[in-house]
# Entry
Amino acid sequence: MKTATREPVATTTPTTPRSHIPWFGNPWRKPRILEAITWVYLAWSVLPVTIAVLFSFNQGRSRSSWQGFSLTWWWEDPYESLFRNPLLRPAIFQSFRLAILTTLIAVPIGTAFAIGLDRWRGRPATAANFSVLMAFVVPEIILGLALFLSFEHLLTFIPLGTVAQVIGLVTWQIAYAVIIVRARLLTIGREYEEAAMDLGASPTKSIRRVLLPLLTPAMFASAAIVFADSIDDFVTVRYLSAASDTEPLSVKIYNAARASPTPAVNAAATFMLISTFTIITLGFIAYRVLTRGQRRESAVKEFVSLEV
Amino acid sequence: MSEPEEGTTTPSRREARRVRRASAKQRGAWYPRWFWPSFATPAIVWQILFFAASFYVILAIAFGTQDFFRNPLPVFQPWWWDFSTFTDQLGRIFGGVYQDVYLRTFGYVLTASLTCLLIGYPIAYFVARYGGRRKGLFLALLIMPFWISYLMRMYAWQSLLERDGYVNDVLTFLQVFQEPFGWLEGHGITVVIGLVYGYMPYLILPLYGQLDRIDQSQLEAGRDLGASPARTFWRVTLPLSKPGILAGLIIITLPMFGDYYTNALLSQSPRTTMIGNLIDLTYVTPGLAAQGASLVLTIVVILIVPMLWYLRYTARAAEAK
# Structure
C-alpha cells in the first residue's frame, strides 16, 4: 500500500535519473562495462599465446595436458628438441638470414624512395608509391603465388630459395620503410636542410649531414618492424622456398602444426616470439633515445600511428 | 604536425616559393633536376620488376595455354590470349563445384568481420575516450598481437581446442557440453572464431585512431544542446567514426579473403574450405597453375574496389596529419 503511492513520486523528481540503476543514468559515470569488455578482450588476446609458451616447457609429448616442467623440447632431447633437431636448427639460421637480408635491402630502398617521393611528385613516383602500397594491402597469398609463377616462368634466372624469398619479402616490406620515413619527413619539414644550404652546404652534403641524421630514428624503427615481420612471415617465404633446407622456422612450424606437432613446435614458436619482441623493444628504445628532445608525440603513440 | 607549406597552397604562397626557389638557384644551392628522381629510382625499378611483372605473369598464365602434362605455357602477347581456361573457372564458380566455396568464404568473412566490429568498437571507444593516463599501456597491449606471428596465435588455439584441451575442460566443467566437443573436426564456427581472434587487433587500431581524432568538444556540444548520451553517440560519435569503421573492416577483410592458414590449422576439412585454400591447393598440386592464376584474378576482381578505397583513405589521412 505504502509503496504503491510513493513510487511515482520517486520517478518524477528531477534529480533522479530515469534509469533503475542509479549510476547508469549518470553521464559522467565511470564506463565500467566498457572497461570490463576491454580487459576481458586483452586477457583473451594474450591467454592462448601464454599457454602455448608455457607448454613449450612441458615434460611429456602433449600440448594440451600439463605433465611437469622440463627443458626437454628446448635442448635436452638429443634429437627432437628445438636447438638440436637437424631440421629445426638450420631453420633458425634461415629465419635470421632472411630477416637480416630483407632489412638491409628494404630499409635503404624504402628510405630513398620516401625522400624522393617527398621532393619529386612526378608521375612515375606516384605510380610506384601506389604499387608499393598495393603490394602491402593485397592478400599475401596473391603476391606470393604471383611471384612464384613469375620466378618459374618469366624471371627464370632467379632461383627459388633464399634469393627469391628475400625478393618476395622486400617487395612488400618496403612499404613499412616508406610509410614511416615519409611520416617523419612531414614532421621535420624542410627548414633544417634549407638552413644548411643557406650556410653553403652542397645538396649531397646537406642530405648526408642534416637530413639523414634526422631520419635515423625512423630508419631504426622501420628496420625493427621489417625485421620482426620478416621473421614472422610464413606465406611468401613458403611459396618461394626451393627445398626443405630453405624453409625458415615459421614454415617448419606451419608444416609441423598440420601433421603431429610436439612441444618442440611450441618452443620454436616461442623462440620466434622472443626474437620479434626483442627486436621491437630495441627499435622502440632506439627511437625514443634518438628523438629525445625533438618535437614528437608520445613514442608509443607514434609507433602506433606508424602501424596504421 | 601541421605543415603550412602543403595543403593550404594559396597563389601568393606559391609565388613566394617560386621566388625563393629562384633565389636559391642563383646562390647555386638548388638541386639538379635528376637529383630527387634518382632517389626514387631503385624502388620504381623494383616494383616494375617484381610487382607489376609478376601480375602480368598471372594474366599470361590465366589466359595462356597448357602442354600435355598441364604445365602452364604462359602467353605474354595479349593478342594471342586464350580465355577458355579462365571461362572454365568462372563456370565452376557460378553454379559449379566452387560456388559453395565462394559463398562460404563470403559468409565466414562477413560473420567474422562483423563480430570483430561488435567487440572491437567498444574497446577502441573506451581506450580513445577513457584511456586517460593509461592510454599508453592500453595501446601497448593492443599492439602486442601484431608482434606475435599469426601462425603462433592460431597454433595456440589449435592445442586449446583439442578434444582434451582446456576449452573443452572448461566447457564440460561448466556443463555447457556433456562431453568434449571436436572443435578441430571441420566446423565453420571454429574457423570463424579463429578469424575473429586473428584479425581483431588490425580492426581496433585504425578505429582507435579515428575515434581519438574526434574532438571532445563536439560531444560536449551535443550534450549541451540536450541530447542524451545515447543520442550523442548515435548522432555525433558514430557518424564521425564511420571512416575508421570502414577502414578497419577493409583492412581485416582483405587478408581474410586470401586466408588459407586459419583453415589449415583449425579445420583441414573440405567442409570449411575457403578461396585461399583453393589457391593454396594449386600451389601444392602440380598441374594446377593455370587454375591458380585464374582464382587469383577472381580475388583481385572482388577486392580491387575496397583496396583502392583503402589506399585513398590512407593517403588522405596522411595529408590531414
